[in-house]
């Protein structure tokens, strides 16, 4: 259901993950995701631990789904000295080309326990349907 169009972007994602580089708005890091079909719905889950819902932006333009997020450093108060900082901060982004068989007009988004889950219904025209032969004239009718 997803269409990959840029193999070099995938290589960039792998290099960023291995190097531990933080993302910036001009070159955001990618976020890990899972994608699967569950009945008549396509599900995409993004890992965004520690990101507030206000810092997540989801857009669809034509068939291009774009998810952007930003994880900011925790508010530092006086007397706090950071000893270790391994959690990636900065901007994260992922663009996915959606197939025409998905109904991009009815995407449902949910954010729970650091996971952004998008549910995209399979469009009616992509679902299997029976074709029956109608009446005496022998015309075919499609029932959906």
UniProtKB/TrEMBL annotation:
<feature type="domain" description="SHSP">
    <location>
        <begin position="24"/>
        <end position="136"/>
    </location>
</feature>
<dbReference type="InterPro" id="IPR031107">
    <property type="entry name" value="Small_HSP"/>
</dbReference>
<dbReference type="InterPro" id="IPR002068">
    <property type="entry name" value="A-crystallin/Hsp20_dom"/>
</dbReference>
<dbReference type="Pfam" id="PF00011">
    <property type="entry name" value="HSP20"/>
</dbReference>
<protein>
    <recommendedName>
        <fullName>SHSP domain-containing protein</fullName>
    </recommendedName>
</protein>
<dbReference type="InterPro" id="IPR008978">
    <property type="entry name" value="HSP20-like_chaperone"/>
</dbReference>
<comment type="similarity">
    <text>Belongs to the small heat shock protein (HSP20) family.</text>
</comment>
